[in-house]
Amino acid sequence: MTKNNQYILFAHCTLPHGIKGEFSFRLLNEESRFLEKGSTIYIQKQNKNETLAELKNDDKNLIAKKITDIRYGNKTIVKLEDVLDRNAVEALVPFDVYVCEDDLPELNDDEVYLSDLIDLEVIDASNQKSIGRVIDFYETSVQVVLVIKLASREIIEILYIDQFIEEVSLEDSKIYVHLPQIVE
Length: 184
Fold this sequence. Notes:
Oligomer: single chain
CATH class of the largest domain: Mainly Beta
Radius of gyration: 18 Å
CATH architecture of the largest domain: Beta Barrel
Number of helices: 2
Distance between the termini: 41 Å
Strand order of the largest sheet: 1-2-5-4-3-6
Structural class: mainly beta
């Protein structure tokens, strides 16, 4: 995968933690624990009317912040530079947390970052026809779900599992899927 200095949505923060100026982050992927003291993150005030596809690479509203302390556990607790108390935390939340793609760990050849799937053209693997675009994703406690906007403007969701995802081609900006059968 070629990295190109894009900003990747990493976590959400809607709550302060305690009274000492700490934040409670909700990581999009609980296994993503590569941030450490001294890492730079980028925060952006939340706007629930925008999809991830609309936010992708929009860095005009990002604010760079250095992490001065981070603890992983049931929650990810973060202390940021120049945020000294709960009042300062409350003035910032809610916000989304981004990281620079260049700072992400390298992946194996058969792996992709979920954020790279945003805005890929979705191809029906059975007939090779374009059916829409990936506009979002979310994680349940069990698996990842892709949110796809069809050409008809309908929204569907597909599990990101081998039974539905045939191939991801970042080079061609396409994802080949097997559509689930609808039983009425």
